[in-house]
Amino acid sequence: MKIGVFDSGLGGLTVARAIVDSLPEIDMIYFGDTARTPYGSKSRDTVIRYACENTEFLIHKGAQLIVMACNTAASVATDVLRNKYALPIFEVITPAAALVSSMKNTKRVGIIGTRATINSNVYTDKISALRPDISVFSIPCPLLVPLVEEGWIQKPETRMIVKKYLHPLKVRQIDTLILACTHYPILKPIIQKKIGRRVNVIDSAQAVARQLVLYFKETESSQRNENQKGSCQFYVSDITPYFEKIAQSIFKRQIPLKVADN
Questions:
Q1: CA 202, CA 216: separation in Å to the nearest integer?
Q2: Is residue 203 left, alpha or beta, with left meaning phi > 0 and alpha meaning psi from -120 to 50?
């Protein structure tokens, strides 16, 4: 089986790496929509259209299963994609919400994400359904994706902006923080320092990978050969020097990028 993974840009590479590590025998195609990032500031209808176009591109390339490695797209387009396409659609929100809800000592959860993700209340709704005793506090952080895409990881301005965004969550004394955007793990060292070492910082990449492993174990039609090494293809809608750099950093090897053909 060939897995297709898409994101609004480079953040989904963290999900792609977790999938490759957990399922090394599976073929994977990644698409980063770098020309149209960020999605978080776009309208719901626009994000849904982008998600459909990205899915169709991956299907055209042979994908038989889709992973939406974009919280913004997952928050508004999951049901649309599942109704429109006759293949398994996975997203990054449900596994992360389930993981946090399973942590017995978790009582006060902070969520940071794009405006679209936060405004959808999807994380709050899923966590509240599983654990009504958990208090959830959500903060939109619209500047973080552009900062990551521009490569401003170590800039003092980035540290200052992260600190400002996280301050309301520190005041509320959260014990767990969900990075509700796949770009944010790239800033995780800064986020962890600013929110405090006692706060458990969660990203969805590992949770999604575990869900996929379970899926392949339970699907009789998918016979895993763990000794086989799968292939990886990486497409973007626009190649930027920083994308190449961060891709190499995440995968610890040179990543050949191709511009997606329409």
A1: 24
A2: beta
Question: What tokens does 212 get?
Answer: 């996929």
Structure tokens at 139: 């903060």
Please say if 141 is a catalytic residue: no
The CA distance from 127 to 124, in Å, is 5
Annotate 76-91 with b (16+ C-beta within 10 A) or e (fewer).
bbbebbeeeeeeebbb
CATH number, domain at 220? 3.40.50.1860
CB 120 within 8 A of CB 181: no
**Per-residue pLDDT tens for 177-221?**
999 999 999 999 999 999 999 999 998 888 899 999 999 988 855
Contact 30, 59 (CB under 8 A): no
pTM for the structure as a whole: 0.87
Residue with tokens 């990028």: 257
Residue 81 to residues 48, 59, 160, 237: CA-CA distances in angstroms? 8, 12, 38, 20
Co-location of 61 and 11 in the same domain: yes
Q: How many domains does the chain have?
A: 2
Residue 57 shares a structural domain with residue 181: no
pLDDT in tens, 90-121: 999 999 999 999 999 999 999 999 999 999 99
Is 181 known to be catalytic? yes
Give the number of other CB atoms < 10 A from CB of residue 215. 15
Domain stops at, among 161, 186, 204: 204
Q: Which domain holds residue 75?
A: 2-91+206-259
Rg (CA), the chain: 18
Check whether residue 123 and residue 81 sit in a common domain.
no
User: Looking at the structure, do residues 29 and 117 belong to the same domain, yes or no?
Assistant: no
Four-residue CA torsion sign, 215, 221, 227, 233: negative
